[in-house]
Amino acid sequence: MIENRNPSMKAMAVLIPGIFLSFSFDIVTPLIYLLYILAITFFLANIPLKRWLLIFMPLSLFAISLAWMTMLYTDESYATGDVVFKFLWFEITTGSAEVGISLALRSLCFIALSLLFVFTTNPTNFMLSLMQQCKLSPKLTYGILAGYRFLPTLQHEFELLKQAHRIRGISRAEGWKNRIQNMKQYAIPLLANSIRKAERVAIAMESKGFTGERERTYYHQMKINRNDWIFLFGMISALIVAYYTSYELGYLNIFGNEVGR
Fold first, then answer.
1. pLDDT per residue over 184-214, tens digit each?
2. Torsion sign over Cα 168, 174, 175, 176
3. Domain boundaries, the chain
4. CA 72 to each of CA 61, 76, 179, 254: distance values in angstroms, whole numbers, following the listed order
5. How many CB atoms lie under 10 A from the CB of residue 32?
C-alpha cells in the first residue's frame, strides 16, 4: 500500500513527474498520466472516495476555469488552426483549445498527485524522514512539528476568546471593517499564549537533552526499502510511457513545439 512507502521517496515520486509533466503542451500525455494516477489512488491507496471527491471537485472547477481563460487569452503563437467557435469578440481556435485542455489536464494531474501524497502521508513521519533521509536540520524539523501541533490548540483558544467576549456582553460586529477591527482584540491574547507555549516547549526540549545536532539517535527509524524504489520507478516510468505513447500517436508537444511523428 502507498501509505507504507517512505514519505521522502513518496515526495520525490510526486515532485519529479510533476516537474517533467509541466513541459507537455499536448492533451494525450497528461490524460494518460492522469488515468494512471487515478488508478493507483483508488487501487493501491486506502483513501475514502467521498473525502477525496470533496476536495478534488472544487479544485477541478478551478482547473476548468483556468483552462477557459487560457483559451480566451492564448498567445498568438499557440492560437493556430481553424476557428472552433466564437464567444463574444473572442475566437477559439483548435490550437488555443488544445493548450487550454492540456493546461486543465496538467492541473488535474498536479491536484491528483498532491491529494495522493496528502491522504497517504503522516505529517510527523514526513518530517522525520526529511530529517533522517534528506538530512534536514533537526532544529527546523522540530520547530515545524511544534508549530503544526499548535494549530488545533490555537483554534480552540480562539473559540474560547469569542465565548468569553460574548459572556462579557461584547456584541458581534457587523460589516467587514468592524470585523477586522474586532479581530485585533483576539490577536494580542492569542500571540501572548503562543509565546508562552513556545517558551514551555523550548524549556521542555532542553530538559530532555535536545541540542539540535545532526548526529543523534531516533526512536522512530525511517528506512528506505525495495518497495519504495519500485514505487518511485513506477511513477517515473508511467510518465515516460505517457510521453512515448503521445510521441507515437503524433501528439507530443513540448513548449509549443510538435515533436510527434
1. 777 777 777 777 777 777 777 767 666 666 6
2. positive
3. 2-122+223-258, 138-207
4. 17, 11, 38, 21
5. 19
